[in-house]
Amino acid sequence: MQLFPCPFCGLRDEREFQFAGEVGKTRPNTSEPVSDADWDTYLNTQRNEKGAAREIWCHLPCQEYFVMERDTVSMDVFGAIALRKDPS
Amino acid sequence: MRNDNLSWDVPIERKFLELSGLTIRQIRPKRMTVISGPFASIRKSTGIDRAIGWPEAPDGEPYLLRLRRDRVLMVNGPDLADGWNAELGLAISDMTCGYAVFEIKGADAMAFLRRGAGISLRTSSASVNRLFHGLAAMIYSWNDQNHFRVHVASPMQDAFWMLARNLANAADEHVTT
Amino acid sequence: MTGSRVGSGGLIDRTKPLSFCFDGGAYSGFSGDTLASALLANGVRVMGRSFKYHRPRGVWGAWFDDPNAIFNIRLAGDEFPNCQATTTHLVDGMKARAVNAWPTARADLKGGLDYFHRWLGAGFYYKTFMWPDWRLFEPAIRRMAGLGHLDRNTVAGYVSDQLHDTCDVLVIGGGAAGLTAARACAEAGQEVVLIDDHPELGGGLYRRGLAIEGEAPEEWVASQQKAIRQAGGRVLTSTTGFGVFDHNLVGLAEHRGFSSAPRLHRMRAGRIVMATGALDRPITFANNDRPGIMSVEAATEYLGRYGVLVGRNIALVSNNSFSKPAAERLRAAGAEVTECDATRGPIRALGGKRPSCVEIGGQRYACDTILASGGLTPVVHLWRHAGGKLDWRDDLAAFVPGNPGKSMIAIGAANGSFDLEDALAEARNSARSGSVSERRGNYRITPLWPKPGSKGRQWIDFQHDVTLKDIEQAARENFVSVEHLKRYTTLGMASDQGKTSNMAGLAAMAAIQGKSIPETGTTTFRPPFVPVPLELYRGHNRGQMRNPLKRLPLEAVHRAAGAAMGEYGGWLRPGWYGDKSEEEAIRAESKMARDAAGIFDSSPLGKIEVMGPDAEAFVNFIYYNTIKTLKPGSIRYGFMLTERGIVYDDGVVSRLGPDRFVISCSSSHVDGVNALLEAWRQDGNDPDRLFVHDTTANWATITVSGPKAREMVGELGTGLDFSPESFPHMTFREAAFQGAPARIARVSFTGDASYEVAVPAAKAETLWETLIAAGGKRGAGPIGLEALSVLRAEKGYLIVGKDTDGETMPHDLGFGIPRLKKQTEFVGDRSLHGEVAKLETRRQFVGLAVTKPSGPLPVGAHVVDIREGRTVSIGIVTSSYDSACLGEPIALALIERGQARVGEYVKILHLGETRVAQVASPCFLDPAGERLNA
What we know:
The complex is a heterotrimer.
Chain A: E1 3-6, E2 10-13, E3 17-22, H1 36-44, E4 52-59, E5 64-71, E6 77-82
Chain B: E1 16-19, E2 22-27, E3 32-36, H1 39-46, E4 51-52, E5 63-68, E6 71-75, E7 83-85, E8 90-94, E9 99-105, H2 109-113, E10 129-132, E11 135-141, E12 147-153, H3 157-173
Parallel strand pairs in B: 4-5
Antiparallel strand pairs in B: 1-2, 2-9, 3-6, 3-8, 5-6, 7-8, 9-12, 10-11, 11-12
Chain C: E1 4-5, E2 13-22, E3 25-31, H1 35-41, E4 48-49, E5 56-57, E6 70-75, E7 78-84, E8 94-98, H2 134-144, E9 162-172, H3 176-187, E10 192-195, H4 205-208, H5 217-230, E11 234-236, E12 239-245, E13 249-254, E14 263-274, E15 278-280, E16 293-295, H6 296-306, E17 308-309, E18 313-318, H7 323-332, E19 336-341, E20 347-351, E21 355-360, E22 363-366, E23 369-373, E24 376-378, H8 381-385, E25 390-393, E26 398-401, E27 408-410, H9 420-429, E28 459-461, E29 466-467, H10 468-476, H11 482-489, H12 502-513, H13 517-520, H14 535-538, E30 550-551, H15 555-560, E31 563-568, E32 571-577, H16 582-595, E33 598-601, E34 608-611, H17 615-622, E35 635-641, E36 647-657, E37 660-665, H18 670-682, E38 691-694, E39 699-705, H19 709-713, E40 731-737, E41 740-746, E42 754-760, H20 764-776, E43 781-782, H21 785-794, H22 817-821, H23 835-838, E44 843-850, E45 862-867, E46 870-883, E47 888-896, E48 905-910, E49 913-920, H24 930-933
Parallel strand pairs in C: 2-8, 9-10, 9-14, 10-11, 14-27, 16-23, 18-19, 18-23, 30-32, 33-43
Antiparallel strand pairs in C: 1-17, 2-3, 4-5, 6-7, 6-8, 12-13, 13-14, 15-24, 20-21, 21-22, 25-26, 28-29, 31-32, 33-39, 34-37, 34-38, 35-36, 36-37, 39-42, 40-41, 41-42, 44-47, 44-49, 45-46, 45-48, 46-47, 48-49
C-alpha cells in the first residue's frame, strides 16, 4: 500500500484515495459549437504516461481534489499540489 | 426477493463494551453542526478559536473538529440557523442525528485504532477524517492519555459496533514484546 | 544407519517429550523439534513422494528451503493441508500424513509411475494423451495433480488479527548480523523492530557451533536481545517478512500457534535492513533426488538446533570452502565424514530409498548419507520485491544485492558477506550510513553448474520433478527466456518457489545457450516469500463485515412489525411485512396502498443540500432539466447525466431559498451523487461561493401515499393546510413536528397523492407511530419495497439502472425537451447531439401489455425480430410484475424505436420460450393524473 500526500491532510494510506483523471483535461465550452473530434478527445483521449505523470486524485476523507506528481513505473511519489488556496 | 432477516444481526441498542485494557461506549452529544466556509467566519459565528486535527485534543466544549480545508464539525455549540448565511458566507447544516459518537479509552486504545488504520501519535494530520477499516470516521484525542473519540455516519454505526467488538478483542489479547 | 538424536545439545527441551504420528506410525520428539527433525531423530528418511513421478523423497533442507516433506496434519479434530515439515513445530498429538502418497510415503501405490517417466516429461499433457480426444484423459490427469487434501470444515476461531505498525528501522533476520544491526540501531536511538521466522533467534550460529564475541551462541543471542529491548527495540519471533511492498511497507506474518491464523503486521519502515542469510544450493548430478541426500547446511542445522545427527557414514560433496568446518562439526558429533571434491568428475548417487555410495569421476565412496553443497546463494527475494537490482559476483558464483531499492540495505550472508567478521562489521555500520572497509572474504568456490548433455536423470526442481533433460527439451523447443523456461517446465513454480532450483535452472539454460549466468538473468521474485494462508489477507473482512449495509433508524420497529428485511441499494430495508408469503404480502400491500394508504420508510432518499450564491447556476449545470426557474417552495423532477449523455440518476430538486437547494437523489446513488457534485464544485467553480452538504444521515423520512394520505398527515399536528389548492403536487412546506423541524414534500413515486415527511432521525419512531395510528383507523398500514416497486411500475415511473442501462439517454425516456431547448450548458450536453445520440434505432422506454395471461414476462427477456432470416434482439424487458391493482401482468422495456411501435405486437424470447406482448405507454394507471393531484 502506497502512501499518498493529500495537500491538506498529509500522508495517508492509498486506500483513502481515488484517481480522478489526468491533469490538463479542459472541458470545451459547449455554449459554442464543439466538433465531434474535440468532444471525443475530451471524453476519451488519455496520455497514459509511462514514467513521470501528473494526475488529479481525490482524497476521499476530505474530498479534496489535487494534483499528484508521481512515476507510474517506479511508484515514486514526487509531491502534491493543492488546486485551491486555503480559504482562511 | 429473499428474506435476509437472519443474515444480519439485530442492532444492539446499548453499545458498551469493557475489556481489561479497553472500554468503548457510545456517547450522545447534544448538538453537532457541519459548517462550511472561510475559517475566520467560522470563528466569528461560533465564538470558538481553533479547530483540531489529529492527534490534538479539544480545549473543552464546545469544540470544532477540522474536517476539510473549508469545513468543520461543531460539537455542543450554539444553535445556529440551518442554511446559507450570506453575510458570513457560511453553509450550515444540523447533523446532530447524522453521526454516532463513541469513546475509546484504555491502555489498548491505540492498539485498537491501529487495527483499523495506519494511524500513529507521531504523524499528525490537519483533518480528523480518515478511513477506519474501510468506514469513514472522524478520529481525535480527548483530554487525557489513551482516550479518543470516533464519529461515524449513523447508518454505519452498527457496522462500526460489530467491527469494534472484533478488533477490541484482538487488541486486548495482543501483547507487544 | 540413518538419523539419530545425539545425547545432548540443540535448542530442544528434552524435559518436554511430545508424541505424534506420521503415516500411521507412532513417534516421539521434544518441544522445539520440527516434524522433520523429530522424524529424522527417529530414523525416518522417506517423508514424501514427488509431484509427477512419485519418487520417494527425504528432506533436503532444514527450514523453508526444503521442497520435499509436505504433510497434511490433523490436530484436535482440525485438519491443515500442505504443512512444510521442516518449518512446522511439533505439537503433542499431531497426526501427519505425507501428501501425494498412498497409503504411505514409504510404500506409495503410484510409485510405479516413475517407470513411465519417458512419457511424462515437461509439457507432456500437450503431446501425449491427445488422441483421440484429450478430454478423455484430462479428468484423470487433473485428479492426480495437486498436493494435499482440503478438509471442508472450517476451523473455529481461525481469524487473522491485522494491524498497522511503524518503526524507524526494520531488521529482517535475527542471525548474528541481524542481532548486531538491531542492537546498533536501537542504541543509536532509532526505533527498531527485529524479526526472525524461528522461535529462537541466532540464525546460523547454531550450525557453526562456535563461540561468538567470547560467548556461547545461546548466551550471546540472549545478551543481544536483552540489549535491544533495553534500548527500546522490539523483537518479534516466529515472524516472517513475506513481502516488501511500495513505499517501504513490509508484510509480516506472525505465527501464533499451529491451529491459529497468523497475525498480519502492515509494517511501514523508515529503513529496512535485510539480514536474511544465504542458502546452500544443490549440486546437479545423476539421482540427486534420493532420500538421504541433503544440503550441508541442513545437516549442521539439524545438529545445532535440534540435536539430530542425520547419518553416521557421510559423504560430503562440495565445491566451496565453507563445507570444511561443517565436516569437522559433524565428526565431532560422532559421524564418519568423507570430504569429496565435487569438481573431480561426473557425480552419481547409487542406492534406492537410501544412498549406498556416491561415485565421483569413477571413484566410489560408500556412505549412508550424501551432503551436497554447490555454493551459497544469498536470500535476496525481499531485495527484489523492493525493486533493488542484483549484481553477479564471479568470485562468489552468486547474485548479490546491487543497487539498493528504496531505503533498504543488505548485510551479512544476504549481502554476499559470508564470513562472520565481515557480517558483523556491516551490521555495526548499519546504524550509520558509512560503507564497510575491506572485506576479509575467506569464502572460496569453484563454480559447478549443470552440464547439458551429461548422463543420468538429474533433478533441477525436486518438488515439480523437473530434470536437466526437461531444460534441454525446453531449449530445443525455443522456450529459452527464463520466464518461458519456468512456465514451460514448471521449474520454480512449486511451493518452495524455486529456492533450491532457480540457480541450477538458469545456469543450465545459460550453458545450453552459451551465455553467461548474469546475461540469462533471473525470473521475477514476487511475494509471498513463503506460502501464507489466505486468511492472513482476510481478517475481519468476513460475513456481515464483508460488505456492511447501511441501517435504518427504524430497523427495530420494522423487525417488530414483522418485516422481511433485504438489501436494497446498499441499505437493509423492509421488502414486505407479515406472515404471508412474499407474493401474498405484495398483493395485499399494493391494494391497501391504492385503496386506503401505504406508509413506507424512505429514509435512504438523498438529502444533499447545495448552498451559496452560485448554487442556482451550479444545480442548473448539473441537471439536464432547467432548474434555475424553480421557485422557492417548489420541487422539480430531473436527470443527472454523465458527460457521455447517459442517465446517471433521477431525483427531485427542492428549492428552499434563492441560495439553497436540496437534491433528493435515488437512495442507492447518494454517495455517488455527492462525489459527483463535489468534483464539479472544485473543478471550474469558486468553492467559496458554493457548498455541498450531504445531510441524508441526519433525517428520517416516512412517506404516506394513497387516497387517505392527506387525512393522515393532517393528524401530525403541523398546523399545515394540506388541501390540494394550498399544497399542490410538487411543492413542499417546512413546519415543526413535536418541536423538531419537519419538511413535508408532496412528491409521488406511486402515482397516488403522496407526502414525504422528513424529520431528524431522533424523531423517527414518534413519527412512525403517529402515522401508523392514523392509518390504523383508515385501513392503511406499512408497505415494503417490493409492493412499492409494483406501484411505481403501474404508473410507468422508471428506476435508473433497472429501466435504463449504460446507453440510455434522456430522450430515450421521453424527456426530449431540454435536449432541444435548454439554453445553458449542462453536464453531458454535447454528447446528446453526437452520432450515436441521433440514431433512429435507439432503444426507447415503453410499457408491454401481456397478451396471453400466463403470468408476468421474465425480466431480462429479449424482445426479438427476424431480420434476413436471423433472430435479433431489439430490446429487453426491464421490469415485470403481476399487478394486483390492475388485475393483470405489466412490464416495462427498452425497445428499438419503441415510441413509434406503441400498439404493435412483439415477440419476447426467453430460454427457448416465445411469448407475445403489445407495446404500450409505460403508464398503465391514471394517465390523466387525477389520483396524483387529488
